[in-house]
TrEMBL record, chain A:
Organism lineage: Eukaryota, Viridiplantae, Chlorophyta, core chlorophytes, Trebouxiophyceae
Residue ranges of every copy of the Peptidase S24/S26A/S26B/S26C domain listed in the record: 45-148
NCBIfam families reported for this sequence: sigpep_I_arch
InterPro entries: LexA/Signal_pep-like_sf (IPR036286), Peptidase_S24_S26A/B/C (IPR015927), Peptidase_S26 (IPR019533), Peptidase_S26B (IPR001733)
A Pfam family recorded for this sequence: Peptidase_S24
Topological type in the membrane: Single-pass type II membrane protein
Function: Catalytic component of the signal peptidase complex (SPC) which catalyzes the cleavage of N-terminal signal sequences from nascent proteins as they are translocated into the lumen of the endoplasmic reticulum. Specifically cleaves N-terminal signal peptides that contain a hydrophobic alpha-helix (h-region) shorter than 18-20 amino acids.
GO biological process: signal peptide processing
Its EC number(s): 3.4.21.89
Family: Belongs to the peptidase S26B family.
Provenance organism: Apatococcus lobatus
Superkingdom in the source lineage: Eukaryota
Name of the protein described by the UniProt record: Signal peptidase complex catalytic subunit SEC11
Compartment list: Endoplasmic reticulum membrane
UniProtKB/TrEMBL annotation, chain B:
Short name of one Pfam family: SPC25
Family (UniProt): Belongs to the SPCS2 family.
Source organism phylogeny: Eukaryota, Viridiplantae, Chlorophyta, core chlorophytes, Trebouxiophyceae
Entry protein name: Signal peptidase complex subunit 2
Task performed by this protein: Component of the signal peptidase complex (SPC) which catalyzes the cleavage of N-terminal signal sequences from nascent proteins as they are translocated into the lumen of the endoplasmic reticulum. Enhances the enzymatic activity of SPC and facilitates the interactions between different components of the translocation site.
Native source species: Apatococcus lobatus
Amino acid sequence: MNAIKSLISDQWNALATLNIRSLLLQGTNLGLIVTSALIVWKTLILFTGSESPIVVVLSGSMEPGFYRGDILFLYMSSKPVRTGEIVVFNLEGRDIPIVHRAIKVHEQDDAGNINILTKGDNNSQDDRVLYNEGQKWLERSHIMGRVVGCLPYVGQVTIILNDYPKLKYLLIGVLGLFVFTSNE
Amino acid sequence: MAKGKRSSAPPQAVKAVEVSREDTRESTKVNLADGAALKRALDEAASKAVLSAGYQEDQSISNLKIGFSLITCAFAALAQFYPRKYPDNWVLLAVCVLGYMAGTGVLNFYVAGREGDAFMFTKRRKGLGHELRISSSMQRYSEWYTMVISSSHDPSRDSVSMRTSVTKYFDSTGVLATKVLEADVTKLLNDWESQRKRL
């Protein structure tokens, strides 16, 4: 405990004697580290064509294919959605996307406008009970992407962090401490 | 004879007390096990010594670094906080990503390439030829600190360097003996200046 206290006080003393220029240099360094992660995410968005290329499965509606806590990789191409494909879609007014299978597809016209009906593999009814009032079909604009890959179990971390937000702050605090104390 | 001896003894004692008081006022204490902190402390004290020898610091590269870092971070912030959502904003996203990559490219290759391991650049001093580039290196787990003074335009051409063990500058509790370091840095600066005069 004393060692930690003296470590923190040493770092504080070192920081307190810094001038504006050093603070700016260290601050922009930290900013670059944080923004590099952000830019990697944005590049993924651009490459996959999906607004959220990596999602975590939150419910058991696609068992036994996907379990709660699996990570899914999405890709959106301009090819039309076909039945049997597993898609992740957003409904208006809801901020959590849903991952289910397309079971019916109707093409409206040659322009590629299609109507899609989805259903979770583990559900007994199709998703019309989930859609908004009066909505019977999904359109292409609702689709966030097709599932092209899966990483089992790893998403549990995200679920735990979301259920216990204090853990999230603790994690960020520890990471910040590491960045500040390992200044080489 | 006796009179001479008596008059020489008190001034010595007074000087010793003055030196130690100054040292404790500006003493920096470093963890001796942390090599990076030792090097940082030596670099900072050496910078102060160069400034007090009459040189002015040239902060253009440091300003470049800060400026480009801020621009690069601004690209990322713009990409994150722009009010339109994907896929409407894909042009802006592409521009921001490319801008960010260009910014980091400039930072890593150009700015860091110009800076290298130097920790200080100075402007031209009155009457003398060149801007200085002061760099230092200290290997991991090694006690040897090498400081090199060279011309900032052509660092490979002439340079003077000194290689000392850090044990010369730090005592066993980790306190830096600034006066000792300042003396060494001043001597190195004089070596450089006399070398320039010869050419």
